[in-house]
Amino acid sequence: MDEKEAMLQQFVIIYPRAHCEQLELSRITIISQTDNNQRNAIHWAVKNAHLDVLSFLLQKSGIDIMEAIDDKEQTIMHYAAKPGNIAILEALIRQQCRLDNRDMEGRTPLHLAAENDNSVALETLYHASDSELNGQDSEGQTPLLLAVKEGHYNIVKVLLSWGADIAIRDQNLCSVIHIAARKGRIKIIKILLERGADINTKGENDNTPLHNTCIEGHLKCAQLLLKNKADPLARNVFEETPLVVAVENSHTDIAVTFMHSKGWKEILLCRNSEKKTVVDKMIRNCPEAVEVMMNNCTRTQDFQFIDPGPNDPMSKEQRYFAYEVILVVKITL
Q1: What's the angle, vertex CA 48, arms to CA 46 and CA 49, rounded to 5?
Q2: What average pLDDT does range 146-169 have in this prediction?
Q3: 304-319 burial, b for 16+ CB within 10 Å, e for fewer?
Q4: Residue 178 CA: distances (Å) to CA of 29, 105, 128, 216
Q5: pLDDT (tens digit per residue) in 69-91
Q6: What is the pTM of this model?
Q7: C-alpha to C-alpha distance for 189 and 207, rounded to whole angstroms
Q8: Distance CA 45, CA 9 (A)
């Protein structure tokens, strides 16, 4: 901790409002000073949730620190949005602090409230500001995308109730359902599907949500998506189906799920640009799935001797028996 930072912390943490008002004029210079991260006293007051000190600082005339930014270009509103202290937020709003400033990542306080799971801050900021609900940061992420990424289900529900756009893509061409699938957010996937999210939409590298969840190995998500008619034959730019990416990442349980599905044969026989199926990789990476495949591919049948039968006492050089098949493998690999 540098000397200025220590001084600012001492000022904000030790001095309550009663002492602040009795400070000498020379002490006021502390208020506008910044530490090595460009944070001033008001940043520290908000960071440490000292409402009395904050109120004193906001009342000081001639000190333009309300819009001051730190080394990440975050204002005091960004600091207030993270912990979501409602009293501090309301105090700053009464002082007409700007609510739509963006930091160096292009995020508004609304983005930070969503990312940090602060529903009170989210509602306060949304209803008090002109911040765009679907505003995107420098990576194309909206407050909804950030909430989905972090798994904040209640925040997602609130944002959707306000009309947050579920089709917006980030810079990697991923929508919220792609991110939810990649992160294994089952509850969020369900609510997104209820809101009409396209289950087969293609994102980065033409991966569908089913591709994403198969890459990461989220079994329950894969089962949910398949149950809701996700396309198991969809191909990405590498001509890979969801089964292929599951096998490449050795996610045996997901491969087994595909082999138990109704369209297993068509899924298995998909060929890549080199005219190869996934079977050889599955033998190496997911042998349990191969066992299920073989059980699917084979069937046995009984047979019986005729003329005259195995227990006939008569001696014959030949015996005749009828059968349809003993073992049939009906698949071309």
Answers
A1: 60
A2: 97
A3: eeeeeeeeeeeeeeee
A4: 51, 22, 31, 12
A5: 777 888 888 888 888 778 888 88
A6: 0.79
A7: 16
A8: 9
